[in-house]
Structure formats: C-alpha cells, structure tokens
Amino acid sequence: MYERCANFNRYGDLSKFITDPDLLQVTEDESVYISNENDYDIAVDLESCYASFDEVKPFIVFLATQICELDNAVQRFHRKKRIKKNGRGYVSLPSPTGTYRIDYSQSMEDNPAPQEEKSDFILAYIYMEEKNQISFNYWCTTENSEFDVVFEYKENKFFMRSYGIIDNIPDNWEE
C-alpha cells in the first residue's frame, strides 16, 4: 500500500474514488470513505463536520475529484520550502488550540537539500470543521508521526493555509 509514497499524481486514478453522491455511505465511526481500503483508503471524518452529511455530499464528491491536485501541492510545498536552519527568522505564534505555530513569511526558505525531498507521508483523513476550509491529515509510513495541511476554498480554488506547524502561507507561495 505504501509504494505510492512521495510520487506526484499518486492519487490520480479517479476511478478509485467514489464520485457518485448516492454511493457515499457513513460508517459506524462517522466517516465517509471516498476510496476503497484496497485503493487509497481515504476517509472524510464527519464527527466534527460543520454541516449534515446530506449537505456536504456534493462537496465531498467534488473534493474526491480534486485530491490528486491538492496532494501534489502538498508534495511541492514539502520539496520546495523548508524552515530556516539555526532558528533565524522563527516567529512563534499561539494558535487557537494553544500550540505554537511558525509564521510562513518569517521562517521559510526555498530549495531544501536533496535528501529532504522525499516525503514518507500518505493522506489518511480529511476534516471539514469549517465551511470553505478542509484539513488533510497525513500519516507517516516510516515512523509514528502525523501532520495536518489546511486548505481554504475561495474563488473556486483551493489555497494552502498551513502545513504542519507552518501557518500564514500566502496564496502565491509557489512564485
């Protein structure tokens, strides 16, 4: 299952996703799997969802068609941006959950070392706690760790807003 790690377009086979709203089903743990376990095993968690299942069905189907591009953006960010070494430029900010975050504009640099380019993380869960915002929960395949990537949906586009502890990612971060 983990051979799809760190490959662009790893979620590119749309036939492996459920794109018919009538086929989406809620499990006992209040999740909706948008791909089979044997395929990608990605679920949307409804427990903390901002609306009812019937209201978010169309958006879940739309999201299933966009996952490949969103995951590619996460991998591009991972490969292109890094936190500056030696702590220079770090700005710690309290977040709503009380953990520290790092401000993007003060703490990032381009072009990591080649050994840092590979990502050992796969997409596991998607959270929709606020309207127009989704959170991808990535799990590591080589050690016990995980991180979240938050996207904002506006103007018919998704914009990455945070990557792990890095917040305040601007719309044009790839430029």
Layout of secondary structure:
Layout: E1 31-33, E2 43-45, H1 53-80, E3 81-83, E4 92-94, E5 100-103, H2 104-107, E6 108-110, E7 121-130, E8 133-140, E9 146-154, E10 157-163, E11 166-167
Parallel strand pairs: 2-7, 5-11
Antiparallel strand pairs: 1-2, 3-6, 4-5, 7-8, 8-9, 9-10
Taking pLDDT < 50 over at least 5 consecutive residues as the criterion, the unreliable ranges are 1-5, 87-94
How much of the sequence lies in strands comes to 25-35%
Distance, first to last CA: 33 Å
Cα shape: globular
Short key terms for the protein model shown above:
single chain, 175 residues, alpha+beta, 6-stranded mixed beta sheet, 3-stranded mixed beta sheet, 2 helices, 31% strand, disordered N terminus
Molecular structure report:
- The protein is α+β, with helices and mostly antiparallel strands and 175 residues long.
- The protein has helices spanning 53-80, 104-107; strands spanning 31-33, 43-45, 81-83, 92-94, 100-103, 108-110, 121-130, 133-140, 146-154, 157-163, 166-167.
- The chain is 18% helix and 31% strand.
- Strands 1-2-7-8-9-10 form a six-stranded mixed beta sheet, covered by helices on one side. The protein has a three-stranded mixed beta sheet with strand order 4-5-11.
- Strand 7 (121-130) and strand 8 (133-140) form a beta hairpin.
- The radius of gyration is 16 Å and the shape is globular.
- 21% of the residues are buried.
- Residues 1-5 and 87-94 have low confidence and may be disordered.
